[in-house]
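Task: fold both queries, return tokens.
Query 1:
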Amino acid sequence: MGARQIFWEPSSDLGLEHLRLEVHHERLVANGLILRQMAQGAPVRLWYRLRCDGSAQVRGAQVRLWQEDVERRLDLQAVGAGRWEDGAGEPLTELDGCTDLDIAATPFTNTLPIRRLGLRPGGAAEIEVVYVAVPDLRVSRVRQRYSCLRADAGRGVCLYENLQNGFRAELPVDVDGVVLDYPGQWHRRETGGTTA
């Protein structure tokens, strides 16, 4: 399969996200670039690269953020059995047991547990995720629940719930589990397919 080119626009403020997504049987690679005027503060440029195995399990993450004259960097490695290390190879024991990664600024990271879990209508699962806050790139663990509400030919709807703060959103997704719209935050712009 070639690379998919996906664009999302924020629902309220200025911005754009461009995602280049490569999906193969044995791996998934996501390269995203977000330009966004946040509700508070200066505009943000955020780049991420996620390397995953064929089941959409994150194996490595690089995140870079620029805001005014400040650059922030975050590098994470998943080393198996729910364990994580930073870019220098130091264990991040506070994240032990986290199975997925959620970067706050993008709708894409919801796709990873949706694909990995492969839930059927009526199914639900609770997971622990590494949550990356934006703009400070601080990491913490967050408990989330995904439920499959509908699965039709080529599309579906999943309910996302943050079990710590009570946030909920119904996320329509395409055949690859990629979010079409994130209510009140992002909506997808169609681009016409894949590139080689």
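Query 1 returned. Query 2:
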Amino acid sequence: MPSDSAGRHEEYRRKLLGLGESSLRKNYYPELRKRMRELEESRKRYQTIFNATADAMFIHDLNTCEMIDFNQRVCQMLGYDREELNNIGFEQLCGNEAPYDFARASEYIRSAVRDGTLNFEWRFQNKAGKYLWCDISLTKAMINDDPCVIASVRDISKRKFLEEQLMQSQKMDAMGQLAGGVAHDFNNILMGIMSAAEVVRILAKGNQEISEMTQVILKAADTAANFTKQLLSFSRKDSIELSEMQLHEAIRNATEILALSLPQKVVLNVKLNAINDLVMGNLSQIENVIINMSINARDSMPEGGELTISTVNRSASELGNAKAGLLRADKYISITIADTGSGISEEVMQHIFEPFYTTKEAGKGTGLGLAAVYGAVQKHNGMIEVESELGRGTVFSIDLPLLEKSVDPIGSAVQEDISLMKLHIMLVDDDEGLRFIGEKMLQNLGYEVSMAADGESAVESFTENRPDLVLLDMNMPNMSGQECFAELRRIDSSVPVIAVSGDSMTYEMEELSAAGLAGVMQKPYRTEALKLKILEVLGAGRE
């Protein structure tokens, strides 16, 4: 007869095997299946919610900081499929470029464990090699009774792009104001040098030695004047005349010059793929933009390489959502200048368009080339971007708005051959030296000259002895040139006024032109240029 122990063992065996009326299978299996179904449904709900979130999400192990899981949005954002990400691992995904590396990421994860939550910005590199800026929120959590950290990741690349553009614009505007102020003061000095040299040459009356020396002075002053023009171009204070033009013509003109200056080991490729190249632009400025950037590309390839200049038409949507806040037109032409040179470091990229910033050796660059390019593109209502990586070349992209139809050409003033010998010109300038030199220049041209040292005395002299034309300096203390012009127009609007400024044409000049300003002379100018401007203004007034 079996013992009680043996009987109990047999009973348990039968229950486990599902034998007998009181088997465990009969009593508990349905409940087990129900619980398993519920767990499976819960898992599916979790996966659905996890993958349906707008943010990319990682789940990290606390010990290794590696990712335990990630949702489908991670794959979409970074361009990898799930299997690729599993094989890559989070450490490799971060890369080894400080401060956006695995070591720093691990520090953040451990900080979140200590503090509970943590927010910061992070930079990922996607499968295509493009950097994405992300806003990261780390939260400590428990999953299946195991502690972990959940990372919620939101792509903020568009916002960062617009922020960087705004910061760059503000920085460049501030530097432009400084550059414009320097250029204005320097132009006044150059005006005195150039004018004095011309007067001396006239007074020398054929003395060969003095004539040669004044020519040296004038040549040096012209070089300095071109330097200040670059400064004004960067500061966007200089005036350029925009007219309807074919962009491809400017590129062809520039590449003809480049073909003669590029070494044989640099291959020039030109691909003008844009169908429509009609823009409002300045031919000379666009040519200079192409040449400036191409020369920089050439210098980055001392051992040779390829320089490619290409164009293509793009719609506003094709330029990308990141530029949406900067677009001013529906259709654009994009100019790309790409080289296979040494590339540009990220640190240099932050300063690349700043005036006087150069990586070239002393005496080999002024640092104004790309600053002038930036200013020219801005004046053409365009956008400029640069992408580069050390050892992998550089790509400059310029987007200019297209014209859909022809613009009526602006008629030029008709000059008349009139006798100017008896005309009276009033010269208004607060600089005593410039008044002295200006008087000599005008007298040598055969004009009767009166002078005023400020706006108040100019108004008084104008009232008492009406001149035939006024040369009015726009930057004067007390009564400004604009205020003086308004008062002169109130007294007698028939007398033409030519504004003279070291700042060239500012927005105020455009307003004055609308109010009847006859013309503008930018300091420094030569005697011949002044003569032609007076002929133009007085000739137009007699039509």
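Both queries returned. Flag for query 2: The longest strand covers residues 131-143.
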